[in-house]
User: What shape does this take?
Amino acid sequence: MSKSLSTVLFSATLLAAALGAVAMPAAAQSASTSHPVVTRAQVLADLQIYRESGLAEADRPEGLSFENGRRAQAQARYEELKASPRFAMLVQQYAVLEGKGAKGVANEGVAAR
Assistant: This one.
């Protein structure tokens, strides 16, 4: 192999490594910000309103015969509850039960998938 060809290959390898090093942090940052953080308290509050709205019953295998209109009503009720102050109150209650208080709700969680 000639000296100029080995220099070109070495340069190409360095360039590929540098581009990879730049791309990896950007990809990691994108992956970490693409999913909102969800706390345990939020998950528990969501589960509670899911049940209260009637969606849990509609989504059970036995609920497959659930009328589409009734399921749509349950979905609308779920969305109302999720957007209501009640949801925030439930999140706070679950956070307190876990001993974290309001500060723990904002600071701890897992990425939603």
Summary: The beta strands are 37-38, 110-111. The chain is about 75% helix and 5% strand. The longest helix spans residues 3-33.
